Amino acid sequence: MDNIEEKRYWIWLSLIPNLGVKRKQILLQKFGNAKNIFNATKEELLNTNGINQKVVESMLDIKIRRNIYNHLRFMEKNKIDIISILDKEYPKMLKEIYDPPISLYIKGNKNILNQKSIAIVGCREASVYGKRASKYFAYNLSKEGINIVSGLARGIDSYSHIGSLMANRGKTIAVLGNGLNIIYPEENRILAQKIVENGGVIISEYPLGTKPEKMNFPARNRIISGISNGLLVVEAKEKSGTLITVDFALEQGREVYVVPGNINLYTSVGTNNLIKQGAKLVSTYMDILN
């Protein structure tokens, strides 16, 4: 991990509780970088729009500041890096969304984050049809040099990563809703290792130790669509977290593709509704390439 001195400030900034993306952006606009924020006085911080007494107390908390070194040691031992929104390796497309993460923890090949990619998402309770479809699209798009982005969840996410890995030199990006020291679900630990070993990357905006809380995943979904050129939905229930990702993709100006589903399956209701609403129906990977 290069520039450790500089990166420790970004680690610190990610550890501050109750300090969301928007307030971090305000701080960056005022102070320029994480080091300057770290060294700011209490008065300077309190005179920043949206920064209250409680947040300032956390920012000045000596325990949080000392905890930086525990994170650095773990990251060096486990080959985890952190990049900030000011770094050239930061995904350019992600930087352009409404609320880009200020920093990203990374394990693996960060060089692929600015390459062409397609996100593939869908429900966890995937049917046999859905599993086959996600593998088919991931495999063939990867063969064409397009990276596959997904969330390492059960079901469609897992089979999308697997399909990419099956392709010769296929690379895939897994976006987590927890710290990189935790693989969730646990059953995907080997899959996560293979993603990194095959030149892919696992990323998260959450610091080490962050558990996979339900509230984290909608925010995670904006990154999945944000770093991708387009979004492919394979299977989704009528009310599904997958549809949150679709909303983010549309908001971010991404093309949304949908694999039509079996009308007899509840896992197809959401996907078929998207087609009715105007999403692009695809039945072959060439429909996306074209």
Instruction: Specify the oligomeric state.
Output: single chain
Task: Give the terminus-to-terminus CA distance.
Answer: 39 Å
- Give the class from helix and strand content and strand pairing: alpha/beta
Pick out the low-confidence regions.
Answer: none
Rg estimate, integer Å? 19 Å
What are the secondary-structure elements, in order, as H or E? HHHHHHEHEEHEHEHEHEHEHEH
Rough outline? globular
Strand order of the largest sheet: 1-2-6-5-4-3-7-8-9
* Number of individual domains: 2
CATH architecture of the largest domain: 3-Layer(aba) Sandwich
**What's the tally of helices?**
14
- What is the CATH top level name of the largest domain? Alpha Beta
What does the main sheet amount to? 9 strands, mixed
Per the CATH scheme, the topology name of the largest domain is Rossmann fold
Q: Percent of residues in beta strands?
A: 5-15%
State the total count of DSSP E strands.
9
What are the key terms here?
290 residues; alpha/beta; DNA polymerase, domain 1; 9-stranded mixed sheet
Describe this structure in words.
The protein is α/β, with parallel strands linked by helices. It folds into two domains: 4-77, 5' to 3' exonuclease, C-terminal subdomain (DNA polymerase, domain 1, Orthogonal Bundle), CATH 1.10.150; 110-289, Rossmann fold (3-Layer(aba) Sandwich). The protein contains 14 helices and nine strands. It has helices at residues 4-15, 21-31, 34-39, 42-46, 53-59, 62-77, 92-95, 128-143, 156-166, 189-197, 216-226, 241-251, 269-276, 285-289, and strands at 81-84, 103-108, 117-121, 147-150, 172-175, 201-204, 230-233, 255-258, 280-281. Strands 1-2-6-5-4-3-7-8-9 form a nine-stranded mixed beta sheet, sandwiched between helices. Helix 8 runs parallel beside helix 9 (156-166) and helix 11 packs across helix 12. The longest helix has 16 residues, at 62-77.
